[in-house]
Design a protein that fits this description.
The complex is a heterotrimer of chains A (198), B (647) and C (338). Chain A is an all-alpha fold. Helices cover 80% and strands 0% of the residues of chain A. The longest helix of chain A has 34 residues. By secondary structure, chain C is an alpha+beta fold. Chain C contains 7 helices and 11 strands. In chain C, strands 8-5-1-2-3-11 form a 6-stranded mixed β-sheet. In chain C, strand 1 and strand 2 form a beta hairpin. The longest helix of chain C has 35 residues. The chains are: A mainly alpha (198), B mainly alpha (647), C alpha+beta (338). Chains in contact: A-B, A-C, B-C. Chain B: It catalyses: 2 a quinol + O2 = 2 a quinone + 2 H2O; 4 Fe(II)-[cytochrome c] + O2 + 8 H(+)(in) = 4 Fe(III)-[cytochrome c] + 2 H2O + 4 H(+)(out).
Chain lengths: 198, 647, 338
């Protein structure tokens, strides 16, 4: 395998640079996916029938925690990639670890949020609005949860193999994924919660 | 557990199908065991990551599905051949036309196209494989097991019965209480994920792995069409993913997306479906345009006329394909303004398509045209597809569509587009590239026979449907009375369908006959081709090209032959190859189990299967297999052997 | 291409097989809306035949002239990049054709979406057409009568069908009078038409709706004003009133013969609100604004398979329906209500 030393480690082989490009293309598909979900949500947002509407169930508190956690974790995954470029394995692993912990906390709060809604009688089956809300948030949450497993797997590989073209490449792609989820969250925060609370 | 819901009752036809499936399966198992082929099958095919073999498997699966969809079609034509036929009942007929549509579009046309792309794209761009060979295997097995999941529906639990467009509320639990539409949502989802991954894979392959010197505007037309198709896949399939997920939530978990109460909205489904559904049509048509462009250039011995405008017309078609979805439901009451907009965008597609037709005609002009089997299909495509195209413009006119919508006129139109546009193309491509993959040509005489049967019978089958539509016959009607006067034209159409059947039988017989009797091609270039795939040996060695070609012109191989520009200049060195892996296959199997469990709401197996999928993905991530090398000596020996020289 | 010959012979024979133009229902209109569409279709066919002719002539000429034959053995085809002007030509001409057809389309579409031009000064007769399972219910709020699986209309008077569905999406289609339009559960759609000659025209559901779809037809009887008025009078006197119980049992049935009633179901089961797109006279846009409160009311009494349980309506029925409560005159009649 040819390693091109002039490029960053994660881009150093042809396979690596293809994988990064491929992941960008995949993110294109993810954008289409979330765009569709947002469209569905916007169509359904006022169709709450006899169930509660957004303003009646949204609480700003947990949402702010979620936002804070996810935005910060986007920052720490950036730090992890930065550490990786300098070859600091330990720092890199610590930052990935912090990222995953914050992701876990985010997922935890989201689960609590869902349980609160369900407790209040706002379930997937209640109305078109709630169906679309749960599916939009749930899809994002499922992405975060999948990211936790994925990040965990990368962490184990880093621990075993150290920083090499393969692990660097995986970490970098994972960081793209994580930033993407962060951006999706910003949209959710603005178009679901802020708009709903206004 | 209640086993009753797994059963499908009633029809001797279905029992017959069950028995024949069981017998065929037993036959295959016995055959494989007797000839000791299990190991061969596993090592060489089920675990392969070679784009050529994956392509061949795609095409085999597509041929199988062509047979299945064809049987469905014959049953429909027979049931409507005369007034008040008693061959199928309404429910069975509904299932048959639903699966016919799904199978022909998603499990026949698209995999056939993707199969040809798999075989040809890396060769035409001078690459050793696709960008992600393992992902490619994952794509195939997801497609394959998705297709199998849909196919078992007619013997286990019942097939989807709400039409391939599965409009809500008809497709809801309330109006379609069988598991049929659960199969729909899961089988399409699984194979759809496979298709999406194919899209990513081929975009990277085409944009990053072209031979040195092959600038974008020097790519063969088929590569352009493949690139644009995959871009459409990447942006259209996520919409299907969402639509199917919402459908699944509505049917399995009681959500309220498309329901009639609690704020649900049935029109949302129609919109989501067609936002994917219309680009889907171009996913199967654009590569066909690419295939035809290659074949026309080869057999008129001329370069493609108006290359630049050909490329731009495809780009414009791709863009427009996302802006026309509402023409599938002008009659939904969105008013004259909205319909006017979609009429204009739809008709606008006729302009770039017309450009392509004229460019093809002018490629033929001043050429020296030989009528080989692939060329015959291509030449038949032009006049027949033009009928499909002009009726498309007629349908695009919203006011007129109020009368064509939901009638046989529409059915005639899209068969006039899809059969010459996609089916003729894949058959032409199949005949054209067959010698590349297998090292011998299909017999031309048998090929012509099959062609004339198919081309003429096609028109006999589908032209009467235009008239039936104007007579007021609605589509998806399982029977009609004699007073309607629909009888004679439907009978004629059935006669045509029988002719089509005969044509396809000859086509398949030709494969058998040619395998036994056709002589080997020795130089790898039986048609005097123009593009890079003809520059390597046939059958193609695992590494495709012993030396990576250097490209200077559009028809790189042609100019290398005519102007003596050398393609291969470097020395043969060792070649890196990816290793085979069984994980994609295993993943496909688990996805199948997952899908099946979800269809029947068997939650525990479904959760176990989901965990299994994650575990397989994890093991793929932990895999540290970096492939292997074929030594330079071995490459040289293989090359000599393939050229018929003694080692 | 001598072998193309049989193909065209076949095409021609197909045309002769046509049992005359009159059996092409769509091209045999009996009202201005259908006539507009029929004219549009014929015009588009003529334009398209022109396009086909150009392509076919070029095609045949090129194939005949440039096919490989003994006489041109050794001929080496030239390399041609293309030709700006020729390519511009076959971009420009299709654009002109498409532009022409676009204008036609926009004009005719808005023509058939509205009351036909010659009848604009008359107030349309409103008929609510609703589908359930594989039946059609026709409610005449003005007259206060309701029919099942047949509809009688006066000639030379604009009719405004307002469609909705108690279930799957269906499509009301009377090919000789107008194009079709969907009937859906949560949106009211409108179809304007006029019959300008008397007669019986077949109407059907054009949109696949499940098992009984093939039999979902109804008769449209266009009669002169006098005959129509007589019929209305007769129904008012003889037909039974449509009770809520009766209506629920009608909805539950899969198929049904003809039925006639002297009151409508609209009062106790209001239709969904109008779509915002078309100018709704009542100005109620509840459907667009909140969770479509009212349509869920009429779907609550939805037929199979869920048993119709309760019929409590908490929202105000569409006020428009309370309009004219016609008084009945007494007269002789023998209309079959079966």
């Amino acid at each position: 395998m040819k390693i091109d030393a002039s490029k960053p480690l994660e881009y150093s082989t042809e396979e690596n640079s293809n994988k990064i490009f491929g992941f960008w293309v995949f993110l294109g598909a993810e954008i289409a996916l979330f765009a569709t979900l947002f469209t569905v949500y916007l169509v359904m947002v006022n169709r709450f029938a006899s169930g509660p509407s957004g303003p009646e169930i949204f609480e700003i508190g947990p949402v702010l925690y979620e936002t804070f956690l996810l935005l910060s974790s986007s920052f720490t995954i950036g730090l992890a990639v930065h550490a990786m470029r300098h070859g600091y394995k330990k720092a890199m692993m610590v930052f990935i670890g912090i990222t995953l912990l914050m992701g876990l906390a985010f997922a935890g709060i989201e689960v609590m949020e869902f349980l609160t809604y369900i407790h209040e009688g706002a379930t997937l089956q209640t109305s078109g609005f709630l169906s679309s809300l749960f599916v939009l948030l749930g899809t994002h949450g499922a992405h975060v949860s999948f990211g936790l497993l994925w990040g965990g797997a990368i962490l184990i590989q880093l621990w075993r193999q150290g920083i090499n073209p393969a692990t660097a490449n995986k970490t970098f792609i994972f960081s793209l994924y994580w930033h993407f989820l962060d951006i999706v969250w910003i949209f959710i925060f603005s178009f679901v919660y802020l708009k709903g609370l206004m | 557990m209640d086993f009753e819901r797994f059963k499908v009752h009633g029809e001797p036809l279905i029992y017959g199908a069950m028995i024949s499936i069981a017998l065929a399966t037993i036959g295959i198992i016995i055959g494989l065991t007797y000839f000791k082929k299990w190991g061969y099958l596993w090592r060489e095919w089920l675990t392969t990551v070679d784009h050529k073999r994956i392509g061949v498997m795609y095409i085999l699966a597509a041929l199988l599905m062509l047979f299945r969809g064809g049987v469905d079609a014959m049953m429909m034509r027979l049931q409507t051949a005369a007034p008040e036929m008693k061959f199928l009942d309404a429910q069975h007929y509904n299932e048959v036309f639903t699966t016919h549509g799904l199978i022909m579009i998603l499990f026949m046309a698209m995999p056939f196209i993707i199969g040809l792309m798999n075989v040809i794209v890396p060769l035409q761009i001078g690459a050793r494989d696709v960008a992600f060979p393992r992902l490619n295997a994952v794509s195939f097995w997801l497609f394959f097991f998705g297709a199998m999941l849909l196919n078992i529906s007619f013997v286990i639990g019942g097939s989807p019965d709400a039409g391939w467009s599965a409009y809500f509320p008809l497709a809801s639990l309330e109006f379609s209480p069988t598991v049929g539409n659960n199969y729909y949502s899961l089988a399409l989802q699984i194979s759809g994920i496979g298709t999406l991954l194919t899209g990513v894979n081929f975009i990277v392959t085409i944009l990053k792995m072209r031979a040195p010197g092959m600038k974008l505007m020097k790519m063969p037309m088929f590569i352009w069409s493949a690139l644009l198709t995959n871009v459409i896949i990447v942006f259209a399939f996520p919409v299907l993913t969402v639509a199917l997920a919402l459908m699944m939530f509505d049917r399995l978990f009681g959500s309220q997306f498309f329901t009639m109460s609690n704020g649900g909205m049935d029109m949302l489904w129609a919109n989501l479906f067609w936002v994917w559904g219309h680009p889907e049509v171009y996913i199967v048509i654009l590569p066909a345009f690419g295939i035809y462009s290659e074949i026309i250039a080869t057999f008129s011995k001329k370069n493609l006329y108006g290359y630049t405008s050909m490329v731009f017309s495809m780009v414009i078609i791709s863009l427009l394909s996302f802006l026309v979805w509402a023409h599938h439901f002008y009659t939904m009451g969105q008013g004259a303004m909205v319909n006017g907009f979609f009429s204009i965008t739809t008709m606008a597609i006729a302009v770039p398509t017309g450009v392509k037709i004229f460019n093809w005609l002018f490629t033929l002009r001043k050429g020296r045209i030989t009528f080989t089997t692939p060329m015959l299909y291509t030449l038949a495509f032009i006049p027949i597809f033009t009928i499909g195209g002009v009726t498309g413009v007629m349908l695009a006119m919203a006011s007129a569509d109020y009368q064509y919508h939901n009638t046989m006129f529409l059915v005639a139109h899209f068969h006039y587009v899809l059969i010459p546009g996609a089916v003729f193309a894949v058959i032409a491509g199949f005949h054209y590239w067959f010698p590349k993959v297998f090292g011998f040509r299909l017999n031309d005489r048998l090929g012509r026979h099959a062609f004339w049967w198919i081309a003429i019978s096609f028109n006999v089958t589908f032209f009467p449907l235009f008239l039936l539509g104007l007579m007021g016959m609605t589509r998806r009607t399982y029977t009609y009375s004699a007073e309607t006067g629909f009888g004679p034209l439907n009978s004629l159409s059935f006669v045509g369908a029988v002719g089509l059947c005969i044509g396809f039988v000859i086509l398949v017989y030709n494969i058998y006959w040619s395998t036994r009797y056709m002589p080997k091609d020795t130089n790898g270039d039986p048609w005097d081709g123009r593009t890079l795939e003809w520059a390597t040996n046939s059958p193609i060695p695992a590494y495709n090209f012993a030396i990576v070609p250097k490209v200077q012109t559009r028809d790189a191989f042609w100019t290398s032959k005519v102007d003596n520009i050398p393609l291969f200049e470097e020395k043969i060195t060792k070649i890196h190859m990816p290793s085979n892996t069984g994980k994609p296959f295993i993943m496909g199997v688990i996805f199948f189990i997952f899908g099946f469990s979800m269809v029947f709401s068997l939650w525990i197996p479904a959760i176990l299967a989901a965990v299994g999928i994650v575990i397989v993905m994890a093991t793929m991530s932990f895999d540290r297999d970096h492939g292997f090398y074929i030594s330079a000596e071995e490459v040289i020996a293989t090359e000599k052997k393939l050229r018929g020289e003694t080692v | 291409m001598n072998k193309k010959g049989p193909l065209y012979v076949l095409f021609l024979s197909l045309v002769f097989l046509l049992p005359g133009c009159s059996s092409l229902t769509v091209l045999n209109p009996k009202g201005p809306a259908a006539r507009t569409i029929s004219d549009t279709i014929i015009l588009s066919i003529l334009v398209m035949l022109g396009v086909l002719a150009v392509v076919y002539i070029l095609y045949i000429f090129i194939l005949v002239k440039y096919r490989a034959k003994k006489s041109n053995e050794g001929y080496v085809p030239p390399h041609e990049e293309g030709n700006k002007w020729l390519e511009a030509l076959w971009i420009a001409i299709p654009i002109i054709i498409v532009a022409f057809l676009s204008v036609i389309t926009v004009k005719t579409t808005s023509a058939v979406e509205n009351v036909p031009a010659d009848y604009k000064n008359q107030t349309p007769l409103v008929i609510y057409a609703s589908s359930s399972n594989w039946k059609w219910h026709f409610s005449y709020p003005e007259e206060g009568i309701e029919t099942v699986n047949y509809v009688n209309i006066p000639t030379h008077r604009p009719i405004e069908f307002r469609m909705y569905s108690f279930g799957t999406i269906t499509s009301l289609w009377i090919p000789q009078l107008a194009g079709q339009k969907y009937a859906m559960s949560n949106m009211l759609t409108k179809l304007n038409l006029v019959a300008d000659s008397e007669g019986s025209f077949i109407g059907k559901n054009a949109n696949f709706s499940g098992r009984g779809f093939a039999y979902m037809e109804f008769e449209t009887l266009a009669m002169n004003t006098k005959a129509y008025d007589d019929w209305v009078k007769e129904v008012k006197e003889t037909a039974p009133a449509l009770t809520e119980e009766e209506f629920k049992s009608l909805l539950a049935m899969e198929h049904l013969g003809r039925k006639t009633y002297s009151s409508t179901h609209l009062t106790f089961s209001p239709p969904p609100a109008d779509h915002g797109e078309m100018n709704s006279e009542d100005g109620m846009d509840m459907d667009m604004d909140n969770g479509s409160m009212e349509h869920q009311d009429n779907t609550k009494i939805h037929p199979s398979p869920a048993p119709a349980s309760e019929t409590e309506f908490d929202s105000v029925p569409n006020p428009e329906l309370d309009e004219p409560v016609p008084t009945s005159a007494v007269e002789e009649h023998t209309h079959d209500s079966n």
